[in-house]
């Protein structure tokens, strides 16, 4: 089976069943101490102090000029705040906390190697978990993204964390228990999938990944993160002035957009509009339903329905709003000639 066919089969598992993916390489930290919530509240873009045990949020941490240093998931428990971030953002997050926690009753704990992270992805994730856990029922509050609760699987403690786009559940557990718990999930009906297959769903959902689609030159609003990651009522935090000014009075120079590519292109490919470079390709994949697709942070003149292209190869792409929508009936199959302008003029793609 070819790589494309294998990813297509795994994509079907993820959208119809339940896939299992090991994401233990993500960066993981924990904060404890009487000032932990108040301290972190002043360092990140979202509201931390209002989180109750069993709740969580997504946030970014910024420079004083409002540029992203990374993003993270924050989970509140009875005793600590659990932090989960891209591995590329782990050291900047660690350094930020160590630098600014002086004078606060805050202790920082490393958890990257001590904890594993498994992901169940797909509409049958709940059914798989229901068969795998030792308890009679799944916790009832795991409906909202980032909600979390402790259960046991094979007598091993596991923290379940609700995820969205794509929907599923993450499992945070001790590293030494990962193999045993993974085997129990497979026995309950989960099927192993690759990171590449899971990335297709993420790209289809239009969710950017720090270090690939967005980096340290990006303000959260440019990446479409305000709704998910920023609270405009929480009070002061590092970088707030820039973020608030852009939100209330400004207009971003760039926007995260989707691309329907004529052919696959590698990440980092420059993209031009009318002879001017307007951005670079971030994540890209071949979707079984949409063909070659990608995400890119593009200057605002590259509006949805416009076309950009690689200045070297000439391969073009249509700019669309995110998330990607169901494919139009006239979209050619992957590999077909999609460059003939007379075909597009007779059967234009509807605006997405």
What does this structure look like?
- The chain has a domain at 1-24 and 113-192: 2-Layer Sandwich (Gyrase A, domain 2).
- 24% of the residues lie in helices and 30% in strands.
- α1 packs across α6 and α4 crosses α5 (178-187).
- β13 and β14 (276-287) form a beta hairpin.
- The longest helix is centred in the N-terminal third of the chain and has 14 residues, at 3-16.
- The chain is of the alpha+beta class.
Note the gap between the termini: 33 Å
DSSP strand count: 17
Strand order in the largest sheet: 8-9-10-7-1-11
Helix content: 10-25%
Q: Over the alpha carbons, how many angstroms does the gyration radius reach?
A: 21 Å
Largest sheet: 6 strands, mixed
User: Looking at the structure, what is the overall shape?
Assistant: globular
In short:
With 352 residues, the chain is α+β, with helices and mostly antiparallel strands.
């Amino acid at each position: 089976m070819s790589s494309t066919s294998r990813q297509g089969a795994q994509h079907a598992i993820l959208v119809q069943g339940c896939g299992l993916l090991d994401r233990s390489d993500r960066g993981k930290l924990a904060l404890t101490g009487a000032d932990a919530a108040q301290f972190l509240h002043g360092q990140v873009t979202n509201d931390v102090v209002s989180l109750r045990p069993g709740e969580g949020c997504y946030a970014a941490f910024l420079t004083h000029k409002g540029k992203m240093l990374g993003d993270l998931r924050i989970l509140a428990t009875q005793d600590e705040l659990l932090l989960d971030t891209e591995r590329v953002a782990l050291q900047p997050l660690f350094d930020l906390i160590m630098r600014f926690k002086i004078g606060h009753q805050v202790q920082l704990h490393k958890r990257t190697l001590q904890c594993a992270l498994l992901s169940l992805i797909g509409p049958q994730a709940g059914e798989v978990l229901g068969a795998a856990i030792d308890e009679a029922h799944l916790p009832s509050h795991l409906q909202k993204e980032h909600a979390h609760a402790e259960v046991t699987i094979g007598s091993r403690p596991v923290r379940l964390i609700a995820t969205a786009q794509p929907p599923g559940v993450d499992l945070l557990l001790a590293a030494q228990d990962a193999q045993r718990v993974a085997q129990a999930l497979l026995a309950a009906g989960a099927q192993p999938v690759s990171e590449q297959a899971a990335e297709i769903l993420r790209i289809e959902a239009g969710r950017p990944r720090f270090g690939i689609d967005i980096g340290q030159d990006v303000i959260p609003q440019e990446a479409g993160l305000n709704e998910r990651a920023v609270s405009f009522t929480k009070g002061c935090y590092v970088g707030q002035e820039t973020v608030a000014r852009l939100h209330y009075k400004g207009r971003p120079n760039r926007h995260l957009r989707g691309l329907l590519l004529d052919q696959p292109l590698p990440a980092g490919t420059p993209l031009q509009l009318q002879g001017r470079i307007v951005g670079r390709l971030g994540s890209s994949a071949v979707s079984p339903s949409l063909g070659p697709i990608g995400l890119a942070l593009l200057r605002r003149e590259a509006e949805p329905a416009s076309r950009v292209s690689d200045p070297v190869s000439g391969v073009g792409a249509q700019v669309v709003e995110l998330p990607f929508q169901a494919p139009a009936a006239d979209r050619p199959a992957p590999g077909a000639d999609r460059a003939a302008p007379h075909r597009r003029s007779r059967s234009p793609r509807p605006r997405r």
